[in-house]
Known about the structure:
Layout: E1 4-13, H1 17-28, E2 33-37, H2 43-48, H3 50-67, H4 83-107, E3 111-114, E4 117-121, E5 124-127, E6 130-139, E7 143-145, H5 159-162, E8 171-175, H6 179-190, E9 194-198, H7 210-222, E10 226-228, E11 231-239, E12 242-249, E13 252-258, E14 260-263, E15 267-269, E16 283-284, E17 287-288, E18 301-303, H8 314-328, E19 343-345, E20 350-355, H9 358-363, E21 368-374, H10 379-384, E22 390-396, E23 402-409, H11 412-424, H12 429-433, H13 444-453, H14 491-516, H15 531-539, E24 546-548, H16 554-560, H17 564-571, H18 605-618, E25 625-630, H19 637-648, E26 653-659, E27 662-663, E28 666-667, H20 668-671, H21 678-682, E29 687-692, H22 696-713, E30 717-722, H23 740-747, H24 751-761, H25 767-790
Parallel strand pairs: 1-2, 1-6, 2-3, 6-18, 8-9, 8-14, 9-10, 24-25, 25-26, 26-30, 29-30
Antiparallel strand pairs: 4-5, 5-6, 7-15, 11-12, 12-13, 16-17, 19-20, 20-23, 21-22, 22-23, 27-28
Helix pairs in contact: 1-8, 3-4, 3-6, 14-15, 14-16, 14-24, 14-25, 15-16, 15-22, 17-25, 18-19
The structure holds flavin-adenine dinucleotide.
The site of flavin-adenine dinucleotide has 37 residues, from helix 1, strand 2, helix 2, helix 3 and helix 8.
Amino acid sequence: MGAMTGSFDLVVIGGGPGGYVAALRAAQLGAKTAIVEKDRLGGTCLVRGCIPTKALLQSTELYVQARAGAPFGVVADAVGFNWTVAQKRKTAVVDQLVKGVEGLLKAGGVTTLKGSARLAGGGVVEVAGESVQAKDILIATGSAVARIPLKGAELTIDSDQILELREVPARLAVIGGGVVGMEFAAMFAALGSKVTVLEMLPQILPMVDADLISVYTRHLAGIGGEVHTNSKVSEVVKSGKSLQVRFSAGGEGGAVDADQVLLAVGRVPYTEGLDAEKAGVKLERGRVVVDQQLRTTADGIWAIGDVIGGIMLAHVASYEGVCAVENIAGRGGRTPDYHAAPNCIYTEPEIAHVGLGEAEAKQKGIEVKIGRFPFAASGRALTLGQSEGFVKAVSDAKTGKLLGAHIIGPRATDLIAEATLAVQNGLTLADIELTIHAHPTLPESLVEAALAAEGRAIHIANRRSAATAPASPPPSSAVASSNLALNAANRDELLRLHREMQLIRRFEERAQEQYTKAKIGGYCHLNIGEEATVVGGIHALKPNDYIFTSYREHGHAIARGIDPRAVMAELFGKETGTSHGRGGSMHMFDAKLRFMGGYGIVGGHLPLAVGGAWAVKYDQHKDVVFCMFGDGATNIGAFHESLNMSKVFHLPVVWFCVNNRYGMGTPVEAASAVADIYKKACAYDMEAIQLDGMNLREVLQRTEEIVEKTRADSEPRFIEALCYRFKGHSVVDPDKYRSSEDKEKWRKADPIVAFEHELESSGLADEEYFKALRQEIDAEVQEIVRYADESPEPSPDDLYKYTYAGEWEDRHELRAGDV
Ligand code: FAD
């Protein structure tokens, strides 16, 4: 043991945010205090963690903003980025803060000892060959980068090394989707690196509410980043001048080429050279074991911060430091309370959360109310030009207490402070609402989220139910044709149908926009122009009738009563979609509403409808199978086979052809020898009619007649609804094959406008009503898109499970081998 050079009430080992804050608090409480640091004061946080990363992220944020300055009137030609200068600034910020800590300790009367500390037992701490005696010792030695036994790990860099890079890598692979990995991913992606993240778990940032993740990954994808979840890295190899990361995902192998590979698989408690166990301090998988008051197993030795594991964050380390020191000073036995420890992630957009997540609260058996407010509806966010993301408030449905808040968006890491105060102090949604918030500010969004949880938000349309997954509304009831006369008694019914047509129109217009923003995968066909055909046809059915449609089906689904949010979410491939995102844009399905959805291949659903009708007949039910398809499908073999079979076996199918005049780019007259498609059904000796598909009331009345006949005699029938699509075949169709005169002529027959004329001339509605309705629907559809945007992604594990089915059980007994 070295010479005894001093004695102290408290010796703190480690000068990070845990240690130095504890030392300052101890000094405030009158303890003669020393702090030992082997490197630089400030620890991981100031030297290689929180501060340097945030300094560099500020540089990248400014760079991104400068490049995007034109719409703000900022003229900044040839904006560039100088990594060396950004690094210099980062170092200056770090140096200034380290100096600040040195100054604070000095001013507080804390003695700083330089060197590596070792516990020599009996309250003695050895530092650089000398010894000091301490009444109490506080271990705050923090953590170090975790390493895994990965083949080729020596080719990777860690978070310490990436901060010292001399240049921005053209391609960066990040192994590990935790906070550190994602912050660097965000930083380098913003600087133009091609970033690929490989995460072993099903979700990056696993502690973050899943709803927030999709916003972040979408942003990252928008700037060229890629995220591979469920991807286990097997090795890193040299490949010419670059590196290659090899991984396996779902049984398949993959590889990513990169110039730098960041290994960011977490941090581990650091006790090297401390001789902790020799001094009686128990370690468990490297972390120092402490009791509720932060005492270790050795008398007079305490521990805090990263070295004790748990929440490894700077502010938690500081908080524990203060708790421990107050316990040492005999002040009231403080037990750290972590229920309101905020977590901030400085990605773009920023993410912050505190308290319970929605799933976590439900797991605990708490009935919750959820409120969300999108930054797109925040005046302040719009002025900042940063309207991505939302605030989500999780509250106790019974008491109204705010249990948690989850934010992704501008300055989320600052916004979380108010929610933290509320969660810590058990404040309710009402407490937040009753607090006047300055305008225009981002914190107003928390108030709105609190109000939204109660269904009372002011600046967004409120959802009918605050539940995450839309509950299917009851099946839409058939509209009796007797209710279609244009008189006051039928006003509500008529306006409901009109509203539905408008909703479908606006929904489709917005869906088209979303497709061009790459939010909808696969194909996207729109019902624009066909609203009367769709609404009239579907409303002629009874709740127990079955609907088989092709992929041009969003309007059909909405008319059937499927929540439009679930329809949009399905198009986006989200968990809250009608088929949990498994069907995507090509297959819409809802068993409860007997909506048997689409089938991606043209006319592929016609034989399915025959099968469905056969089942109905076999069960001797009085349901009708209603099969909707476009004119293009009538030129294929499956059409003829299906009509033939339905006739031969007397099946209760109504074949409903939406003749919108063009099968893809070919006019009906050119594609078919018989331009009157209903005549094709005559060949099978089937009753067939042609009706005006631009006239809602005609479609509904005549379809109802046909459907009811088929219900009565189980004979197939055929309807041809003549209409016109206002857009091309799909959203990617440039629609050059139709003359503008042709389009103009049909535009004049717009089914919605035509119905509005009827309503107006019979005094049931006026232009003011239509205008207000359009505004209302605009807001509703905006909310629908937002809902779909913010819905969680389906779990990749479930994605290929039961694409068409509901949640039914696996029935082994139905398999041949098991019988
Ligand atoms: P540390 O900060 O690790 O300090 C421990 C100190 O002890 C070190 O200075 C070390 O040199 C010294 N030491 C160790 N052993 C001895 C010994 N035997 N003798 C003398 N000295 C010794 N957290 C946040 O809250 N927000 C963030 O934004 C954030 N960003 C991060 C970014 C990165 C890249 C990293 C790596 C971490 C980040 N963290 C962040 C985590 C944060 O840095 C740590 O949680 C925090 O520093 C822990 O504080 P501590 O005092 O427990 O330990």
